[in-house]
Design brief:
The protein is mainly alpha-helical and 162 residues long. It is 46% helix and 4% strand. The protein has a two-stranded antiparallel sheet. It is rod-shaped, with a radius of gyration of 33 Å. The protein starts with a helix and ends with a helix. 13% of the residues are buried.
Length: 162
């Protein structure tokens, strides 16, 4: 059962950065059993919850985990060696069969910067990259002229110095 012990340590650390690998929670056991494809119509997470509740603990060590598996197998009439074999052969903990993010048409349409209008259009360059502060603020030129004055820098040309 050396391999089961290694898997136990790996799954007890999975999703819990504070875990030392010596104890495991019901949530981690359910993830492990789900990844090992132990759950079916005969054995469900409800069954593991009932069996785990009999232990009256939030976390269990490897020895108690084996007792948990024995009790679960006995209650459901499944050979405990079949469960242990699946648990050993399921591989390292991972997120292989998790739900993926769904791309809905509306999200792509709303985040396409080429379709922005008005002042929002000014916030992005042609490639869609944000301009930062230059795209959000109007910079004052502090030249002393009003905004739409066309004759800027023409005073000296029309009025020569005496």
């Amino acid at each position: 059962m050396g391999d089961l012990d290694k898997q136990f340590t790996a799954f007890s650390k999975f999703g819990d950065s504070k875990s030392d690998g010596k104890t495991i929670t019901l949530t981690q056991i359910d993830k492990w059993l789900k990844q090992a494809q132990v759950f079916d119509k005969k054995l469900t997470t409800t069954d593991t919850g009932i069996e785990f509740g009999k232990l009256k603990a939030k976390t269990i060590d490897f020895k108690t985990f084996n007792q948990f598996l024995d009790g679960l197998a006995k209650a459901k009439g499944i050979p405990v060696d079949d469960i242990k074999t699946k648990l050993v052969n399921c591989g390292a903990p991972g997120t292989a069969n998790t739900t993926q993010a769904v791309h809905v048409g509306g999200v792509d349409r709303l985040t396409d910067t080429s379709k922005y209008t008005g002042t929002h259009k000014e916030r992005f360059d042609e490639s869609g990259k944000g301009k930062g502060i230059e795209g959000r603020e109007d910079k004052a030129d502090n030249s002393g002229y009003v905004g739409n004055y066309k004759g800027k820098d023409t005073y000296d040309k029309t009025h020569p110095k005496n």
